[in-house]
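Case 137 in the screening queue. Each case pairs one protein sequence with one candidate compound; here the compound is flavin-adenine dinucleotide. For every case the pipeline is the same: read the inputs, emit a complex structure as tokens, and attach any notable structural observations.

Predict complex for case 137.
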Amino acid sequence: MSAYDVAVVGAGPAGCTAAHRLATAGLRVALLEKEQLPRYKTCGGGLVPRAVSLLPGDIAPVVERHCHRAEMHLVDAGLSFGAERPTFLIMMAMRDQLDARLADWQAPPPRYAQGVFAKYAALVSSASEGAVTSAPL
Ligand SMILES: Cc1cc2nc3c(=O)[nH]c(=O)nc-3n(C[C@H](O)[C@H](O)[C@H](O)COP(=O)(O)OP(=O)(O)OC[C@H]3O[C@@H](n4cnc5c(N)ncnc54)[C@H](O)[C@@H]3O)c2cc1C
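Case 137 output:
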């Protein structure tokens, strides 16, 4: 029988991200989902860059559109706001495709198991965490 260190319940973006972080840290993780993926989920499917940077893996294949302009209209208050950027403001994806991709994503094996590159990979944190070089040996 397989043993796990932790079970993550729910393979939405939060569960998938948690599961991958725990697995990357060396824990044996079971990711449990009550639905069969891919499954439809009610959602606008808009992803802001900060959220995308936290997701595991490359979601580019399931992104349908990059939006450079966004508007918000508060009809009752009679207020409207808009923003436009040369880089995208929001990526659009269907949640059935996005969540299935996140749940299926496997971290690629390290390209270097020994030598200076392996040592570098072991010692230096991810660029998203500041590429800190003081990790313990
Ligand atoms: C109409 C609408 C539009 C939205 N539009 C946007 C948007 O444009 N952009 C945006 O960022 N957010 C949007 N959201 C919010 C977004 O959908 C949620 O913030 C997001 O899905 C939360 O992710 P999560 O991983 O925490 O949970 P979920 O995505 O809800 O995932 C939870 C998972 O757990 C599973 N589960 C639940 N119970 C169990 C159980 N007992 N056992 C096993 N599995 C279980 C579910 O099947 C599901 O797959 C929208 C929400 C709605 C309702």
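Case 137 observations:
- The chain has two domains: 6-106, 113-137.
- The mean pLDDT is 89.
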